[in-house]
Fold each of these.
Amino acid sequence: MRRTTGVVLSLAATAVLALTGCDAVSEKAGDVVSSATAAVASAAQEKMDEVKDGVNATADVKAGETSTDGDRTVAQITATNPKDKNADYTIMVNFRDDGGNLLDSVVLNIDGVEPGTAKSGTARSNRTLSGTTTAEIAQALRH
């Protein structure tokens, strides 16, 4: 009986250590993904900051539903130009999971949108995203 109890306790201790190790690995992987996502978002913001003489045009731009194209998540983005001359749009699109967590950020240009018309482009994630995702317009500049 003692030998069986010792084996059971040993196996239980090994299982606890294995689970703790898996949690640590999982936590580390989550930290790496979080850091990579933050770096991508920062790079996207830097691209937005490069736009000179842009005006806030978030109200002009809408994000469609997400879908997959190969191993990437995509969303159709539509810019509607309310002004009386052609405009170019630079748009930062955030992909989020169903919990609202940021998964990826991309910058999309839609050029030559004529007055009073709409023009669309496709935002494509930088990497494979899993689960349910939505696309949102984080920032849009008309220039």
Amino acid sequence: MTSTFPNISINTERLVLRPLDEDDVPALAEMMNDEQVTAWTDVPQPFTESGARSWITEYAPAERTTGRGLDLAVTEFLTQRLVGIVQLTKTNWHIRSTELSYVIAPWARGEGYASEAALATAQWLLGDQEFERVELRTAADNTASQQVAQKIGCISEGVLRGACIARTRTEDGTWTEVRTDFIVWSLLPEDLDGAGDELADTSGFTSFPDWN
């Protein structure tokens, strides 16, 4: 039984999800310095191009080859512009479960890209890869991320109290860490029946293994 994800490209009507490459460094660094990304993720700030390059050339390949997860660039099909990233982490190959998260660039928000990319990834996992569970965790106050989870058909399972560290601006403009709750969501294979009806025009995907 496989214990690593393949090098994969997933196409939807508007998007291409593919492995990160070094050409993504400037756009990735710019995206990860956004205020909302800073608030709801634990990426180092400021996020430098050197950090982006290390992520692309060291961290992401190691995550895949060790079986821990998968990092995919989300790009527009027509422009090839970097829309965001989808990450799979904490993968358990015995129980066929993984945690899915997503980040969308500021300029691309409000277009349904997060939902489209997340649903296509979940369909690939629960279909082609025969996974049994996809888990999402959203900070209690991150309503945009919660809307994505709901839109792709996730089931809310409960609250992990005090399990999330978020960041907020102080009066002097610096960032400070605050503790909040995680809301846990999941998708099982049976949840995909009728899931993402609002995305029916864009959620169909084609996967291309052995991406070069």
Amino acid sequence: MPNKPNAPETIELSEDELRVIAGYAADCACPVLPLFERDLPSDTRPRDAVDAARVFAAGGRRTGALRQSAWAAFKASREPSLSPAAADAARAASHAAAAAYLHPKASAHQVKHILGAAAHAARAEELASAAGTESTGAAAEALARARDHAPTAVRTVLGRLPVAPPGGGPVGELVRALDAVLRT
């Protein structure tokens, strides 16, 4: 749904939908946490963010601690000793916790909040694969898993929003690819 002059400024967004989206984002981010933990085994910030997203998804409250866990995972992604794959794994965790704060705005930017964890996880797998001997289709496989495990609420909320915006480099491309397939 492209932005139109008469398009609504807000969308419907229930707390139950937010919980499902946060749980989905946590499920997408969790498999790549070992990439981060391999580089910084004693740094729990990304795992804490995924755990906080899961608590919210299971009925917990949206608290300042949840928001802070998202910021902490983002800060962890900027540690200078990290591999690029580990940095994207931490960004996936950050997006998982931040998904609880999706806004009911009819903005293409909100699509990145819904699919950011999946896209960063796919990028982390792609980067790890390129550095190792695994198949080069790691990002495509990660996006296929994200597509196959997307709950109805994720697809429903995406359907209320404009399509993913341009830009964002390789992660933006992954967001747009996943957005397109989830809308079909």
